[in-house]
Amino acid sequence: MATDPTLADWYELLVENHLVAGGPAASIVEELSGKVPLVPHSVGLNLGGEPDPEHVARVCLLAEKIDAPWMSDHLCLTAATVHAHELIPVPYTPAVAEHIARRIGELQSRTGRLFALENVSSYMSYAASMQTEWAFLKRVVEAADCGLLLDVNNLFVSAANHGFDPRAYLDGIPLDRVVQIHLAGHQVLDDHLRDTHDAPVCEEVWALYAETLRRTGPVSTLIEWDEALPELPVLLGEVARARQVREAACP
């Protein structure tokens, strides 16, 4: 890496970029391993669908290789007959909750590591859903006995798109299970918000982050910025802001 890897307290690895031997991605893992904690974050375990055994095996092997403190993926469906390359929300039904909890339980048993389930940004809903997202999320993580990766930006985006109070969401989930938080930027479009990871965290999300921390206590936090990357000082400024908010919320 061209800069000091300890500029951040820890790093998250987008798992699907690191499953092939060799190349720049592998060299990054080799350089960072043992210097700062690395946490594997997947986008392709397809928890709402059927597992790909080969993919699952590779993800678990990477978690072992980097001695991950935990691993994570999203409360979503990514593949059915074809791979959608999207994080598609699932219908909130007992059968789906049972399926996802079983998948998570299998991953935790296989790796011996805590799994953290992340909420996604939502732009649609299902007529079949039988409860709110937060009640469904609570049901899944308690049945799986797993952790939560609370994406505060995703929560803000979904709340705006569906017209619910994000604080009601916080009231309804087991915040003692939150082991990680995501922050990111989004786009404001004509009739909805879109999670894009291409801008600074907005003031409303910073405020919701502070509210979350007042309830959870200090939690490992990651800034996601995947597109239209700015200069490094801008990214480090977001990291510094997150630290400032955490210190003010959790004195």
Q: Total strand count, please?
A: 11
Helix content: 40-55%
By CATH reckoning, the class would read Alpha Beta
Gross CATH architecture: Alpha-Beta Barrel
Rounded radius of gyration (Å): 18 Å
Order of secondary-structure elements? EHEHEEEHEHEHHEEEHEH
- Range of strand content: 15-25%
Q: Tell me the major beta sheet.
A: 5 strands, parallel
Strand order of the largest sheet: 3-6-7-8-11
Shape: globular
**How would you classify the helix and strand content by structural class?**
alpha/beta
Mean of pLDDT: 94
Which residues form runs of ≥5 with pLDDT under 50? Answer: none
Structure annotation, total helices: 8
> Any idea of the CATH topology?
TIM Barrel
Domains (count):
1
So, the CATH homologous superfamily? Divalent-metal-dependent TIM barrel enzymes
Terminus-to-terminus distance: 34 Å
Any key phrases for this structure?
41% helix; TIM Barrel; two-stranded parallel ribbon; 11 strands; globular; alpha/beta; 251 residues; single chain; 8 helices
Structure notes:
The protein has about 250 residues and is α/β, with parallel strands linked by helices. It has a single domain (about 40-250), classed as Divalent-metal-dependent TIM barrel enzymes (TIM Barrel), CATH 3.20.20. The protein is about 40% helix and about 20% strand. It has helices at about 25-30, 55-65, 95-110, 135-145, 150-160, 165-170, 205-215, 230-250, and strands at about 10-15, 40, 70-75, 75-80, 85-90, 115-120, 145-150, 180-185, 185-190, 195, 220-225. The strands form 4 sheets. It has a 5-stranded parallel β-sheet with strand order 3-6-7-8-11. It has a two-stranded parallel sheet with strand order 1-2. A two-stranded antiparallel ribbon has the order 4-5. A hairpin with a 4-residue loop joins β9 (about 185-190) and β10 (about 195). The longest helix has 18 residues, at about 95-110. The two termini are about 35 Å apart. The relative contact order is 0.10.
